[in-house]
Design goal:
217 residues, mainly alpha
């Protein structure tokens, strides 16, 4: 059972890398971008869910937290594009608050547990999890501010497009990081865990900066 899940996980992750790359490179909007984006979403959802199951079968707190972090970014990216296309005035719903209710306890674990392990001098991945914990904390704070912003819920507010780009880009970074950690041997292991996030975040911000005039509400 575990081996079948692993094969499924690798297949969906690889398919996600391919479709996500296509979505990033083609012209944005309906057509190829939307279609490849849907395939990317389905692939990453399946990949992350299979990772969750495997982490529970052979318990691994570190990978479990990373899988949940990836799912948080994925759902946020999908939700954001849906809100962008909303033609009516709306307000936050359970779909917007529930991820936050799960996200904050997860972030507390991602930050608190490595600190505990550091004090106890246990494990070698504590700094990596702490790194991702702070990234998620920043995302959660930004999401809370956005959700509480009244103007954000006006039809077609481009702030949701900014969030969509950031979150889907973050999801792709997660997929690439998993590939890099397992296939690229350069320097210490923590470098392959952290470097894609650093480089990817800079590229995402660069993309958003180029679109700044278009992203104004």
């Amino acid at each position: 059972m575990y081996q079948l899940l692993l094969i499924f996980h690798v297949f969906t992750g690889t398919f996600g890398l391919i479709t996500g790359l296509v979505a990033m490179l083609v012209r944005k909007g309906p057509g190829t971008h939307a279609m490849s984006g849907r395939y990317f979403t389905m692939s990453m959802a399946a990949c992350s869910m299979s990772a969750l199951i495997m982490c529970l079968m052979h318990f691994n707190a570190f990978l479990l937290a990373i899988a949940l972090f990836t799912l948080y970014m994925l759902q946020a990216g999908v939700r954001s594009i849906a809100l962008l296309k909303n033609k009516q005035l709306s307000s936050p719903t359970v779909r917007d608050y529930l991820p936050l209710m799960i996200g904050f306890p997860l972030t507390a674990f991602m930050i608190g547990y490595p600190i505990y392990r550091q004090v106890m001098q246990q494990g070698s991945w504590k700094n990596v999890l702490l790194f991702f914990g702070f990234i998620m904390l920043v995302m959660l704070i930004q999401d809370v501010r956005l959700i509480r912003k009244t103007d954000a819920w006006k039809p077609g507010n481009k702030l949701w497009l900014r969030r969509h780009i950031s979150m889907m880009g973050g999801t792709y970074i997660a997929a690439f990081t998993a590939f890099a950690v397992n296939n690229i041997q350069i320097g210490p292991v923590w470098l392959m865990w952290m470097l894609p996030s650093v480089v990817g975040s800079l590229l995402i911000q660069q993309s958003i900066s180029k679109l700044t005039p278009k992203l104004k509400s």
